[in-house]
Each structure stands twice: as C-alpha cells, then as structure tokens.
Specification:
This protein is of the alpha/beta class and about 350 residues long. The chain is built from 14 helices and ten strands. The protein has one domain: TIM Barrel. Helix content is about 45%, strand content about 10%. α2 runs antiparallel to α10, α4 crosses α5 and α5 packs parallel to α6. The longest helix has 19 residues. It is globular and about 55 Å long.
C-alpha cells in the first residue's frame, strides 16, 4: 500500500498537499488502491449490505434561482407540480412493500408548501413506525425544521454545494448567501436530525483547492450523511454549455471521505449513474454504501429535472447489479451508527 493511502486509512486525515495529489493524480494504480482501501473500510463498517432509500420527489416548485438548477424559479420551460398527501402516501406504501425502510421526501425550496408537509410527515411516521423519514427541502425557518422534526422526520439533507464563499457566489443569485446555508446545517444538528451535506463535483469555476475546502468542511462538521454527485448541465440554465463534472473525480471523493469518516452514509448518486455506465455499482465499489431508487410517480419524474439525462433504473435491476458483486439489501432503516 502506498504511503499516501496508508496515512489516510490509519490517521483518517491527510495534509492538503496529499489530498490534492489524490484528486489530481494520473497514477491509476494509486487511484485503484484508494478505491480498494475505501471499499474495504465500507465493508468493515457495513458488511456487504447496501442501504436503500426510497426517493419521492414531492415538488419541483422552488423560490430560488440557482444558476445551475433546472427547477430554478425563472425556468418557464418546465411544468410545475406538487404531490398531494394521497400521492405521497401511495409512494410510501409502494416503497415499503418493496422493502424500503427510509422514505426521502425531496423538493424545491418552498417554505409555505413545506409547512403543509408537517401533518403528512406525522401520518407517514404513524403509518410506518419502523421506517425513517429523510427530508431535503432546502433552507427553512428554524421553527419549521422543529415542527417537521417533532412530526417524525429523522434526517435532513442540505448540500452546502461549495465551501468556498467566492465560488458559492458564482453559482447562486445575490439573494442567496453561504452563511445562511451553513447556519441551517447547524440548526439541523441542534434539533438532532441526522444531518447530511455535500457538493457538486466539477461545477462551473470549481478548482481543486475548492474541493479540498469542501473536504475540510465535511471533516469538521462530521455529518451523518454525505451527498456528492457530478455537475450535469441543464439546457435551461446559464451553465447549459459547461461540461459535466468528472465521474472519476466523484468516485475519488467517495473514497477519500469514506476513509476519513468510516461510518458516514454515502450514496452512490443518481447523477453519477446518469453519466457513467454502471456508475451506481462503481460508486459502491469506491466506498459508497447507499442507493436511492426512485418512487416518484412516473408521470412527474421528467418534470423534476435538476439536470438532464437523469437515470431511473428499476429496483430489481439495482439489486441484481449489487448481487453480482456480492452485495445485498434488506428491509433496514440504515441509521447512522458511530
């Protein structure tokens, strides 16, 4: 084992120079060694079980105008929708019957609609008490985070997108500030949510040094979940002509963060599988331990277009891919367990 990977494995840390080398190296044997070590660490933490999360994209209505996002409020070329209570519960019922024990309600940032989710979350919690509820609804007021937590939400994913404030300003309108995003993350932690953060890889104007800052922020915050995926351009955004992020670099980040935070839940994301054949299983083999099959009603999936070309393989196909590599799934909440 090379010294660089061994230090990262043993000390759960590397100097910035070492992180840059792992992120930029052309040495494929070093990269494969990094992935192998991360895979072994994931197996030490979780065995060969992969946790399943049932994704329900409940609304594409968003008040924000993020420059990279297909559901940004200024995009008039998509049909907006919000699932009803009955539709959400039907999605949960289908997911539960498929062996899913975590429901992920994801949607655009819209506090007034999110307020309407409070009784729905309570009903999900009462109907399937052995299941976890994860929310990803953006920046909300503290009292609404609290109401959702009391109603039964267990986890909250709020990607920080980039730790560098200059880069953050390049990706978002002036009305959005990085300080607010970080404040929300600490509020979620205060309310005892299992909290997730993460970033896009290869987003416009990103530099390697910014990714090192992302790693340091994640290392300091120590989230229970880490959501990382490659940037994929959307035709109705200002970044339509920018290249997609690197699948390879995304997987290196899975590996680095797995070695730094062995117990964190790290999804092999839909975005990765959207740009890389077999990306879902390749992400698992690089140290990820979570997959999120989509249970959004099919008629709405195209409208939830954060980026273009989103993959949506059936759960049975996902399980077949995992089984071929010796992995398995089972009905399990898959809580963080440090």
């Amino acid at each position: 084992m090379t010294e660089l990977v061994q230090i990262l494995r043993d000390k759960r840390d590397l100097p910035d120079k070492g992180l840059v080398e792992l992120l930029e190296t052309d040495n494929q044997s070093l990269v494969e060694e990094l992935k192998e070590c991360a895979r072994e660490t994931a197996i030490e933490s979780f065995g060969k079980e992969v946790f399943l999360r049932g994704l329900i994209e409940w609304s594409n209505v968003c008040r924000n105008d993020c420059l990279y996002c297909g559901i940004r409020c200024s995009n008039a070329n998509i049909q907006r929708y919000t699932l009803t209570r009955e539709q959400i519960l039907s999605c949960c019922e289908l997911a539960y019957s498929s062996g899913i024990r975590t429901f992920v309600l994801q949607g655009g940032e819209n506090p007034s609609s999110a307020q309407n989710l409070v009784p729905v979350v309570a009903e999900i919690h009462a109907s399937w008490p052995d299941s976890a509820i994860t929310l990803s609804l953006g920046e909300l007021p503290f009292d609404l985070y609290e109401k959702l937590r009391i109603a039964g939400a267990d986890r909250y994913l709020l990607r920080h997108e980039t730790a560098n404030p200059v880069h953050y300003a390049m990706l978002h309108p002036i009305t959005m500030g990085q300080g607010t995003r970080l404040k929300c993350l600490y509020q979620l932690r205060e309310l005892c949510y299992q909290t997730g953060m993460g970033m896009m890889v290869g987003s416009p104007f990103q530099k390697t040094e910014y990714l090192v800052e992302d790693i340091r922020l994640i290392q300091m915050f120590r989230p229970e979940m880490i959501g990382i995926g490659p940037f994929i351009p959307h035709k109705d955004t200002k970044f339509a002509d920018f290249p997609a992020g690197s699948a390879e670099l995304t997987m290196r980040l899975y590996s680095i963060l797995r070695l730094m935070l062995p117990k964190a839940n790290i999804p092999s994301t839909t975005a990765l599988s959207s740009i890389l054949p077999d990306g879902r299983i390749k992400g698992i083999l690089a140290g990820a331990n979570v997959i999120m099959p989509n249970f959004t009603p099919p008629q709405y999936r195209d409208a939830y277009s954060l980026y273009e070309g989103k993959s949506a393989d059936p759960l049975e196909e996902v399980q077949k891919e995992l089984s071929a590599e010796g992995y398995f799934t089972r009905p399990n909440r898959g809580d963080y367990n440090n």
